[in-house]
Write a structure and sequence with these properties.
about 650 residues; alpha/beta; 16 strands
Length: about 650
């Protein structure tokens, strides 16, 4: 059963937020837009008055008294017309131009706000939202907002002013003819209620399913090699066709209902036009035109000019309502898009209550003090509010987890009673099957997630007290899935520390044994990488990733399956570089190849989120437990 998608009443609250943001950011532009819109709209409504004046004050008197008798009236009339239409054209130009420019600036500002906010969101947000769906916010949803702001809302406002102005004029001219107009309005309302609502519903469904389509296309593009390896092209095409057909079906229904709106409204307008002419003619013949809101007509009881002007008002009235009904769909899409945009903007950012910061330090008279220079030595700056003092503790790289419990959701705990102590310079290895909790523990160390219970300490400081940015500055991470950015090789290495010199980047590459293959690239370190480094092998990308971590020179390293994508020969080279890199650092290693972790100070065996064994290689072999069985091949690690 398909999920019903529609704009809820509470979703409409997003529209005032958009308008408030617009007025706050572009106050004088918005004021000028609305002023010129009003002038332009009222100017369009002057046509019926002009036509009545032309007939009753110039044409009819000119026929009976001659052209010379109305020459003065003609001159005044031409001046009046030129003034009205000149002002109207100028106002229309101003508001239309300002709307386009302001809307584009607004969208530019909105994209920046969304992107900046996205950078502050926790990892959990990206775990629960597909990348394609997020990308759809930047494209489809923001573009829908642009259409709403640049065109739809101004057009609706313009039409509403015209409708209100024409209603006022109609009521002062003839209540009988106004009643005929009300009959037409009722018919138009029925059409909008039936056809327009369905059109809006399918436009919104189209907007939502396009996000799904983009997400699926992105997924398949990223996994194209896997698709081809398993010959799943037919299945991929089948699923794409299903989603694409859903887009086509919703779009077809949306545009079908949307396209039939104007012809129906146009025919109702033509019917109304004929009715006004018919009823107006009868009223003139029966001398009944004087029934109006203000009493007797100003221009005579048998004014043919009044009927002609009313016909013009009827046409303008129908066009204004038809225009409004057409723009309602775009506004509905814009509101749906704005809702998704503000859902992202309202998503809670990564909360950081840390007040302990990382500073450069040096020793003076046996005490650690803060330094303004880059000394290469670091210390934790710990302010104490109760005593209004500041203490400095040298950064060493000691990590402790005490009785840690953690769950990605409150009702499902995945780590239980985790106790680990990593002293400065120790190498801690995690072993266990997939889903045992190895990567989860490292995610807790860099505070991608916060623990449910227990304590995590860094150099005897509660990790929650440490500013997250400073905490992560001390951690070097080499992930299993390497991501390289568009740019040169040296720029990708420098990403680990942006102020690193070329010499430092090259030194880091040599340390990671990446220098050899980099020098063989067409432009060496200046070779431009595109598409996340697709012109490199997986092993080469991993080497650059390790060099990137090396140039950061952190006291703590986290290696998450760092050599899993490297062939055996390359692994030997990498391992030598890694051994040099790990000297003097606290290192956490996750590896499937147990041969790479034999020299670890502690090997921690995990199963179902619990530590079942802990010790060095020799002691665990002597125990002949789970690690022994894994190492000897009696059981395999899944």
């Amino acid at each position: 059963m398909k999920k019903k998608i529609s704009i809820k009443k509470e979703d409409l609250k997003v529209l005032p937020r958009v308008l408030k943001y617009l007025f706050k950011s572009y106050t004088w532009q918005m004021i000028l837009i609305f002023i010129t819109l009003i002038i332009s709209s009222v100017g369009q409504c002057m046509m019926p008055i002009i036509m009545r004046t032309l007939i009753d004050k110039i044409i009819y008197p000119g026929i009976s008294s001659g052209l010379n008798a109305v020459q003065g009236e003609i001159v005044n009339f031409l001046i009046f017309i030129c003034s009205i239409f000149g002002l109207g054209v100028l106002s229309s130009y101003v508001w239309a131009t300002l709307c386009g420019v302001t809307a584009q600036k607004f969208i530019d500002l909105m994209r920046k706000d969304v992107f900046n906010h996205m950078q502050q969101l926790p990892i959990k947000y990206f775990d629960t939202h597909t990348h394609g769906d997020i990308m759809s916010i930047y494209t489809n949803d923001i573009d829908a907002m642009h259409q709403m702001i640049a065109s739809s809302i101004p057009q609706i406002f313009n039409s509403l002013i015209i409708v209100v102005t024409l209603i006022t004029i109609m009521m002062t001219y003839s209540l009988w003819l106004f009643m005929v107009e009300l009959f037409g309005v009722a018919l138009m309302f029925i059409v909008v209620k039936t056809v327009g609502v369905k059109s809006t519903k399918y436009f919104i469904k189209q907007q939502a399913v396009i996000g799904s389509l983009e997400g699926y296309v992105e997924e398949i593009m990223n996994g194209q090699k896997v698709v081809k390896v398993f010959n799943r092209e037919d299945k991929v095409e089948e699923k794409f066709d299903k989603i694409n057909n859903e887009v086509c079906l919703d779009s077809t229904k949306a545009h079908s209902y949307g396209n039939m709106m104007m012809p129906i409204m146009g025919n109702i307008g033509n019917l109304l036009y004929v009715l006004v002419a018919f009823v107006g003619g009868i009223l003139v013949l029966t001398n009944s035109m004087n029934v109006s809101l203000t009493g007797v007509s100003n221009f005579g009881v048998e004014s043919i000019g009044l009927v002609v002007s009313f016909l013009s008002m009827s046409r303008g009235f129908s066009n204004a309502i038809g225009q409004t009904s057409q723009e309602v769909n775009a506004v509905a899409l814009g509101i749906a898009g704005a809702k998704r945009v503000y859902d992202l903007l309202d998503a809670p950012i990564e909360y950081d209550e840390g007040y302990v910061t990382l500073v450069n330090c040096e020793e003076k008279d046996g005490e650690i003090v803060e330094s303004d220079k880059h000394t290469g030595s670091w210390a934790w700056k710990h302010p104490h509010k109760d005593t209004n003092t500041v203490t400095y503790q040298k950064l060493e790289g000691k990590i402790e987890l005490h009785d840690v419990d953690f769950g990605y959701t409150e009702d499902k705990i995945v780590l239980h009673d985790i106790d680990i102590t990593a002293n400065p310079g120790e190498k801690i290895a995690f072993v266990g099957s997939t889903g045992a909790g190895k990567t989860t523990i490292t995610n807790l160390i860099n505070r991608f997630y916060d623990i449910a219970d227990g304590k995590v300490r860094y150099d005897d400081i509660n990790i929650n007290k440490i500013n997250k940015a400073d905490l992560r500055k001390t951690l070097g991470v080499v992930l299993q899935d390497v991501y390289l950015f568009t740019g040169t090789v040296i720029d990708n290495i420098r990403y680990g520390r942006l102020d690193a010199t070329d010499e430092e980047c090259i030194k880091a590459a040599k340390l990671a044994n990446a220098d050899g293959f980099i020098e063989r690239l067409p432009d060496g370190y200046n070779t431009v990488l595109t598409n996340a480094g697709d012109n490199l092998s997986q092993g080469q990308k991993q080497l650059i990733s390790i060099a990137r971590a090396a140039v950061a020179d952190p006291p703590v390293m986290i290696l998450d399956e760092a050599t899993s994508s490297i062939d055996t020969r390359t692994e030997v080279l990498v391992q030598r570089g890694m051994d040099s890199l790990m000297k003097g650092r606290t290192v956490f290693v996750i590896a499937h190849r147990l041969s790479t972790i034999r020299n670890s100070d502690k090997i921690i065996v995990l199963e179902h989120g619990r530590i079942i064994e802990q010790g060095n290689h020799d002691s665990l072999i002597e125990k002949k437990g789970k690690y022994y069985e894994l190492y000897t091949g009696k059981i395999e690690m899944d």
